[in-house]
């Protein structure tokens, strides 16, 4: 017997609530398989099986409150569904038993079902929403073929077939699922072969379309939507993703490159409004729900205040224009404004550490690392991937890192690790033409810098009126930890470093 214990929950966390068991008493379990999730006031924790065997007893039901070290359940070690018949066999003939084992295993390999389970989606991710299945129950699938995408509040997780065979779907599109939950099964290849004649005989007319589907590349749900909505041929799209997969960026590039796309709108005018519903109700995606909740929580928690300044971009633009071709040839990436801003921000954070800190209860946590979040707008919503150790990167390193994060965000390939742990955030509304805004803090961070559109404006310079490229900067900060003097000093320092970029390069 092995006890399933409540793990340590953190220094300031004294209790947790049982979320949902993924197994029932009597179910076989494997070592390190997720059995139950505990919810605290800070994070959700997954508790795994301490051994192979059978979940003999559940001692804490869903919704109960438990403390660290409490026994949640018991696993009978060594006892499993496969082992049970062997244990029940007579002891009189010990020799034949091993010989009989392969015979007993054969049906399980050929006719048994392989479970399709929800993968672990991160320590703080308790559930996800099922996307649209790319196959139907009864369809034959290949091993590692993409079957469905599960959308969490942070990233989309792709689920592939664990084996070749016939698919059975247990969780429909839109259903909420938890890590470890079974969402389908696949009858192994032997069962697939046995089941194949029935659908084949019933649908000879679909043989041609089935052949086309078999020849078509496997597409993620996000790519499938782009392909379907724009009538693209997947086989004609140049794939740049891992293992030759088509990314969403590839599909979007194919739309722009398609010469026949232009005449279509002229030939098919928009339908009159009378033929369309006046309103349409659409369920918010899990990502959009999380964005809404976190932004409102940030407003409700922090004492948010915004201070403004403006920066003359003349010298940065001149430096960029002078070296952009040499820079791109040398480093293989374009020289943009984000690297200059990131360098200036990191140096200002060194000087005003409160802006790089966060509040935890009655404590202030000062960060001695500089992981800069970069807000990226995608078709699913705003995400903020994190550029790690920005203080250790060159301008080229910053540009490459931001470009890679932006591409991963737009293609839906960001990992949970890339979305967590930022210490300060930059958001650039100027790419959409924003002149001025008040960004909302990305909790639990204490500062976020809003960049805006560069506009030619008349400015008084040394007694003369000159036309200069000007940008408004907005620093939103948590007034509980950052005083007004510190916030203004921080923003002025960023302004100085951008208006005289040599200062940042010389560390002045």
TrEMBL record:
<comment type="similarity">
    <text>Belongs to the 2-oxoacid dehydrogenase family.</text>
</comment>
<dbReference type="GO" id="GO:0005829">
    <property type="term" value="C:cytosol"/>
</dbReference>
<dbReference type="GO" id="GO:0004149">
    <property type="term" value="F:dihydrolipoyllysine-residue succinyltransferase activity"/>
</dbReference>
<keyword id="KW-0816">Tricarboxylic acid cycle</keyword>
<dbReference type="GO" id="GO:0006099">
    <property type="term" value="P:tricarboxylic acid cycle"/>
</dbReference>
<dbReference type="InterPro" id="IPR004167">
    <property type="entry name" value="PSBD"/>
</dbReference>
<dbReference type="InterPro" id="IPR001078">
    <property type="entry name" value="2-oxoacid_DH_actylTfrase"/>
</dbReference>
<keyword id="KW-0808">Transferase</keyword>
<dbReference type="GO" id="GO:0045252">
    <property type="term" value="C:oxoglutarate dehydrogenase complex"/>
</dbReference>
<dbReference type="InterPro" id="IPR036625">
    <property type="entry name" value="E3-bd_dom_sf"/>
</dbReference>
<keyword id="KW-0012">Acyltransferase</keyword>
<feature type="domain" description="Lipoyl-binding">
    <location>
        <begin position="1"/>
        <end position="76"/>
    </location>
</feature>
<protein>
    <recommendedName>
        <fullName>Dihydrolipoyllysine-residue succinyltransferase component of 2-oxoglutarate dehydrogenase complex</fullName>
        <ecNumber>2.3.1.61</ecNumber>
    </recommendedName>
</protein>
<dbReference type="InterPro" id="IPR003016">
    <property type="entry name" value="2-oxoA_DH_lipoyl-BS"/>
</dbReference>
<feature type="domain" description="Lipoyl-binding">
    <location>
        <begin position="113"/>
        <end position="187"/>
    </location>
</feature>
<dbReference type="Pfam" id="PF00198">
    <property type="entry name" value="2-oxoacid_dh"/>
</dbReference>
<dbReference type="GO" id="GO:0033512">
    <property type="term" value="P:L-lysine catabolic process to acetyl-CoA via saccharopine"/>
</dbReference>
<dbReference type="InterPro" id="IPR000089">
    <property type="entry name" value="Biotin_lipoyl"/>
</dbReference>
<dbReference type="InterPro" id="IPR023213">
    <property type="entry name" value="CAT-like_dom_sf"/>
</dbReference>
<keyword id="KW-0450">Lipoyl</keyword>
<comment type="pathway">
    <text>Amino-acid degradation; L-lysine degradation via saccharopine pathway; glutaryl-CoA from L-lysine: step 6/6.</text>
</comment>
<dbReference type="InterPro" id="IPR050537">
    <property type="entry name" value="2-oxoacid_dehydrogenase"/>
</dbReference>
<feature type="domain" description="Peripheral subunit-binding (PSBD)">
    <location>
        <begin position="218"/>
        <end position="255"/>
    </location>
</feature>
<dbReference type="InterPro" id="IPR006255">
    <property type="entry name" value="SucB"/>
</dbReference>
<dbReference type="Pfam" id="PF02817">
    <property type="entry name" value="E3_binding"/>
</dbReference>
<comment type="subunit">
    <text>Forms a 24-polypeptide structural core with octahedral symmetry. Part of the 2-oxoglutarate dehydrogenase (OGDH) complex composed of E1 (2-oxoglutarate dehydrogenase), E2 (dihydrolipoamide succinyltransferase) and E3 (dihydrolipoamide dehydrogenase); the complex contains multiple copies of the three enzymatic components (E1, E2 and E3).</text>
</comment>
<comment type="function">
    <text>E2 component of the 2-oxoglutarate dehydrogenase (OGDH) complex which catalyzes the second step in the conversion of 2-oxoglutarate to succinyl-CoA and CO(2).</text>
</comment>
<dbReference type="Pfam" id="PF00364">
    <property type="entry name" value="Biotin_lipoyl"/>
</dbReference>
<dbReference type="InterPro" id="IPR011053">
    <property type="entry name" value="Single_hybrid_motif"/>
</dbReference>
